[in-house]
Amino acid sequence: ERIRGFFRRTLPVSWRQRYGFVRKNLLTALFGQVKSQLTVSLIVTAALTLAFVIYGIPYGLAAGVLIGVADALPVIGAGLFLIPWSLLSFIGGSTGMGVFMACAYVGVIVIRQIAEPRIVGRQLGPLLTMMAMYAGYRLTGFLGLLLGPVLLQVMKAVLEADAAAQSVSPSENR
After folding, report:
1. Which among 43, 4, 34 has a CA at the least distance from the CA of 20?
2. Confidence of residue 40 (pLDDT cuts 50, 70, 90)
3. Which of 9, 11, 38, 96 gives 15 a disulfide partner, CB atoms 3.0 to 4.6 angstroms apart?
4. What would the pLDDT profile of 98-143 be if each residue is shown by its tens digit?
């Protein structure tokens, strides 16, 4: 409370108003971003679980949920499980299972390519989201696919706060 009081006494009112606006917009945007990513992961989890249960994989429900949760994590992904499972199935002589796991991995990629820009794009717009994902991927690799849209959300919140502050009191910003 003392630290907060210090900043209230020290910082100008316009800065405090901008901070409040940025904080509110940023929390809303980041919550929306996390919700969108979780929605995409839930779709992938449901698709994998359904495919595993229909194909008759033992413990298909558990395997689908486990791989779906791993797919939600930035670096791990579904490929960490599906690609080795496919290769081991081919090596072990179970060609059908190997083909199924390879197709399941391709299915996860297709689902992500279709669903992610649409669902995550509601927050920023599909074109901006795809540009942020591409730029993030080129700059930092796979983790950038997630961080690019988040960074864009931060920049959007800061720019909106600046625009709102300038429209309220243009004489203070000189």
Report:
1. 4
2. confident
3. 11
4. 999 999 999 998 998 888 777 776 766 666 777 888 888 888 887 7
Query: Which tokens belong to 87?
Result: 């290769």
CA distances for 83 relative to 16, 96, 98, 116, 137, angstroms: 51, 14, 9, 21, 22
State the pLDDT at residue 46. Answer: 94
**How many CB atoms sit inside 10 A of residue 117's CB?**
17
Alpha-carbon distances, residue 129 vs 12, 117, 139, 148, 150 (angstroms): 35, 7, 15, 8, 9
Cα-based angle 98, 137, 50 (whole degrees, multiple of 5): 35
Q: What is the pLDDT of residues 143-154, one digit of tens each?
A: 787 788 778 877
Q: How open is the CA angle 106-108-109, to the nearest 5 degrees?
A: 65
Quick check: 134 and 54 in contact, CB under 8 A? no
pLDDT at 48: 93
| Alpha helix (H) residue ranges in the chain | 2-10, 13-55, 60-72, 79-91, 95-124, 126-140, 142-168
